[in-house]
Amino acid sequence: MTAVKTALTIAGTDPSGGAGIQADLKTFQELQSYGMSIITSVVAQNTTGVQSIHHVPLEMIEHQLDAVISDIPIHAFKTGMIANIEMMRLIAEKTPKIDAPYVMDPVMVATSGDTLIEANARNFLREQLLPLTTLVTPNIPEAEFLIGEKIETIDDVKLAAALIVEKFDAGAALIKGGHLKGDAIDILYDGNVMHRFSAKRIDTKNTHGTGCTYSAAIAAFLGQGLPLYNAVRQAKHFVTAAIANSFPLGSGHGPTNHWATRVEKVKQ
Ligand SMILES: Nc1ncnc2c1ncn2[C@@H]1O[C@H](COP(=O)(O)OP(=O)(O)O)[C@@H](O)[C@H]1O
Ligand SMILES: Cc1ncc(COP(=O)(O)O)c(N)n1
């Protein structure tokens, strides 16, 4: 029996390697989980933006899910880009069969500003998928959509995190402060306690894929058996190092740099 833990991502692709499935698999690998992937949409994108999107036929998404679920134990999984209601419905049907933590990155808009999910799918995500999650990880614009209010201060962030758990029934909420001013402060509400994770803001435009990397790291750590707080703490350390080591690849928002993050883990 091997001690290796598996992590599965269900998401869209990024051929330029910075976000989506590619970022998730790189993160799983760096964190020594065995990475697996279900592709929902093939996205032609790079550091400057999204050029076109091809949705994988629903039946093929189902076959990919069945192939993995029927054969391999899944210790944790995450979802990223799920573009439309039909895909969401399929995922809502299939994933309860997976007895493992579920981290949802409610991807709506890429760092470049391009929209990645259909407008009518947002409500479905909030109403049908959120209650299935162990943790949802919205950035500020995504959290604003989920609660239907503007978020400007850390107090607003805390209120939003509480609402997402108590009103919309997410298992826990981690709201990421990358889009606010000042230090990069994220708030985790686990249904009981409000936790705060803070890092110095790094002066860089190379933030393509930060959200994907962060949620993939959390999923990997949960799959390795860490409790939620500890998984987020390790993942925050990992994503901050990946941003600090990012580099100006391409002419737009460069990617975070996973392989330069081989740093010692923080003491819990
Ligand atoms: N410039 C930055 N310096 C340090 N941390 C950052 C920076 N930008 C984002 N982060 C952190 O990266 C993680 C991803 O956040 P964010 O960029 O808001 O997500 P998304 O990619 O979904 O928009 C969070 O932990 C956030 O605090
Ligand atoms: C397929 C896919 N999924 C997600 C993102 C969001 O990336 P970011 O972390 O930069 O917001 C993306 N650009 N492409």
TrEMBL record:
UniProt GO MF annotations: ATP binding; hydroxymethylpyrimidine kinase activity; phosphomethylpyrimidine kinase activity
Keyword Kinase: yes
InterPro entries linked to this entry: HMP/HMP-P_kinase_dom, PM/HMP-P_kinase-1, Ribokinase-like
Keywords: ATP-binding, Kinase, Nucleotide-binding, Thiamine biosynthesis, Transferase
Record-linked Pfam families: Phos_pyr_kin
GO biological process: thiamine biosynthetic process
Record field: catalytic activity: 4-amino-5-hydroxymethyl-2-methylpyrimidine + ATP = 4-amino-2-methyl-5-(phosphooxymethyl)pyrimidine + ADP + H(+); 4-amino-2-methyl-5-(phosphooxymethyl)pyrimidine + ATP = 4-amino-2-methyl-5-(diphosphooxymethyl)pyrimidine + ADP
Lineage top rank: taxon: Bacteria
GO cellular component terms given for this protein: cytosol
Coiled coil: none
E.C. numbers: 2.7.1.49, 2.7.4.7
Pathway: Cofactor biosynthesis; thiamine diphosphate biosynthesis; 4-amino-2-methyl-5-diphosphomethylpyrimidine from 5-amino-1-(5-phospho-D-ribosyl)imidazole: step 3/3; Cofactor biosynthesis; thiamine diphosphate biosynthesis; 4-amino-2-methyl-5-diphosphomethylpyrimidine from 5-amino-1-(5-phospho-D-ribosyl)imidazole: step 2/3
Residue ranges occupied by any Pyridoxamine kinase/Phosphomethylpyrimidine kinase domain in the UniProt entry: 14-257
Similarity comment: family membership: Belongs to the ThiD family.
UniProt cross-references to NCBIfam families, sorted A to Z: HMP-P_kinase (TIGR00097)
Name of the protein this chain belongs to: Hydroxymethylpyrimidine/phosphomethylpyrimidine kinase
